[in-house]
Amino acid sequence: MKNHSFEELRTIMEQASSIVLTGHINPDGDAIGAVLALASSLEQLGKQVFVVLEPFGTKYEGIPNQHLIVEKEAVPSQVDLFIALDCGDFGRLDWLSDLFQNVKTTINIDHHSSNTYFAEYNHVEGESSSTCEVVYKLIKDFFPLDANIATALYAGLIYDTAGFRHSSTSPFTMEMAADLMGYGIPFVQIYADFFDRRSFTEMKAMGLALAKAEVLFDGKLSYTSMTEAEVQSVGSNGKELDGIINYIRGVEGTKVACFLYEKGANDIKISLRGTDGYDVAALAKKFGGGGHIKAAGGSFAGKIEEAREAVLAEIAKMI
Fold first, then answer.
1. Tens-place pLDDT, residues 193-207
2. Residue 1 covered by a domain
């Protein structure tokens, strides 16, 4: 699979007049930060930009440039360029398939090693800590980069490295963080928003999920789940559940963590985390998903009890 150069991508972006930018479904800090950073930079180049994202949790409200977000219906029928960021495969943005197929040119920018190179032009850096790190390399010294753009990039960097705690954190990652801090960004607030602050409903959902948690396979697996009714019982909209998987993976002795939640009828979301030697991205692929070796996700069409049986059977083969 061919990686197109940054020079090629910049040329395509410079030639386009109207551009749609999006991230994966249920966007996280990296997807939101990358999309809004690049969109703002392109807008400052005089481009007409349309950011289309699914609704996201309140913890991401501090990421700048959200005025660029529009409803899907507001995007014109004829657009020059479609840019997908932080999407490992086309299925992660299939809700925009009509827009993707109607534009003249498509670009895919990502950092997931499982990426399927689904666009006309692709640039994937599996060794990078985040898609925001890739976007930073793309625009630094070539496209506009101001304090708001730097804040968005730092937010994605912090989110996908879990505050520089993941092994994907490289010396370049730290150099990038230092450079972004030089723009006077609110780096303390960004960290607090992602890792210290939570809504009351998020706390209630966490409590319910933890009360149901169990350890299996001699303590190597930490597992929990939530039905749609349970999610709704605490007043959650389902956009504030990402902290659950990260919490249960910290249980002593855990090699793999799994969190299942019911998004709708016969629609089960699978979140997976692994430690060294446990490739959860390969596991997620068996359920139509992907991601990183140590952090991945997928989905299951069926009841949550069926999903549990199927997923745990695959985990048992791993551990």
1. 998 888 899 999 999
2. no
